[in-house]
Amino acid sequence: MSRILLAEDDDSMRGFLERALGKAGFDVIAFDNGAEAYERLKEEPFALLLTDIVMPQMDGIELARRASELDPDLKIMFITGFAAVVLNNDMAAPKDARVLSKPFHLKDLVREVERLLAA
What is the model's pTM? Predict the structure, then answer.
């Protein structure tokens, strides 16, 4: 079972994603901010970091950058409504990170997660 670290500050979206990915067979550990998610990443390995970009305390870009330093093999996927604006410059996002723009359908999320983990 692949382990996913989820960082999403919106309570309803976080619960929605956690349930959907859990039903798809993933072990999901969720946090409402990047700082707490990063602390957990320092304690144990995960297969995928699934993070919103805009969050309090530590945004998703910074979380992904630090996570990549801890584990260069960690897969990273951003979920955001601001993808076109935020990631088109040199924002220091990991080069192989994927972006899933909100709104998205659950089956699209699960398919993208499975595709990324299989790569």
Answer: 0.89
